[in-house]
Amino acid sequence: MIAEWNDIACELGPDDRYGEKAAEVMKTVADVVEQCAAGSGLSYVHEQEPGVFAFIMPGEALNGYLSGWRQLAETIQKAIARQLGLNITVYAGKPAAGPEQLAESVKTAHASRNCKFAYNGGPVIVHNEACPASVNYLELEPEYYTELIERLEEQDTAAVSEAVDRMFEQFHRQRFSHESVKGSVTRCVLGITRTIRDMQGDENELPTLQPMLNWDRYPVSPSGLKSLFTGFIKDSSDFIARLRKENSKGSIQKVKQYIENRYSENISLKSIAKLF
């Protein structure tokens, strides 16, 4: 099984260190796993990557769980989440009948992580219920990007929010894989930064740009990604409004200077409009 600590960037405060919190998470996972393993001493926990803790459960742990693998996974997830107050997802791989099948069990648990967005962030995902073959490797239709960016340029806040909702609904409805979600979100971000550059702005001034570009550095839930993306959209909208205001002021000043420099010439509104 795998216990995944989601939305780390949101959970950690500005003065928190990942290593210190990760040590607390790992200890809690180990304690819960050992308790659920009925004190067999056969459980094992390993942090495979930041926020991802893999562990082995002995067969004896299923004793007392009439619903089997899912019920055990739910018990573990609830205990860890309750003790830490964090967003925890547990993935259960294919049960191993012996040591020779452990690699397959680990592999299927990781494959289940790819189903996170297709299953909309449920706290427990079991391999035989979330077959990786059921996720799709797709990209959003161009209309979704176009709609979002156009509404953003128009400063239509309600329409932008609706466009974001539609995007994330598609991730779930069409059962997007993790990589497909990553590609779609990245395309949106790059489209928005291109708009900012076209307005003579510097996208690096956006405080949420780097977190948005690096969102998959740590595990993130569907709701956590949507919250992060919405924050980026809000920052981008505010920045675009400021750029439009500054550019408008600059254009007015240019027109005024043009007229003052040519006050003795025959200037028409049409000729000015062609230039500006």
Can you characterise this structure?
The chain is of the alpha+beta class and 276 residues long. The protein contains 10 helices and 5 strands, in the order βααββαβαβαααααα. The chain has a 5-stranded mixed beta sheet, with helices on both faces. Strand 4, helix 4 (102-113) and strand 5 (124-126) form a beta-alpha-beta unit. Helix 5 runs antiparallel to helix 6.
Q: What keywords describe this structure?
A:
alpha+beta; 10 helices; five-stranded mixed β-sheet
What's the main sheet like?
A: 5 strands, mixed
Order of helices and strands: EHHEEHEHEHHHHHH
Structural class: alpha+beta
Number of helices: 10
Number of strands: 5
Report the average pLDDT across residues. Answer: 84
Gap between N and C termini, in Å?
A: 63 Å
- Fraction of residues in β-strands: 5-15%
Rounded to the nearest angstrom, the radius of gyration is 26 Å
Outline: elongated
Q: Give, in spatial order, the strands making up the sheet with the most strands.
A: 2-3-1-4-5
Binned, the helix content reads: 55-70%
Low-confidence stretches: none
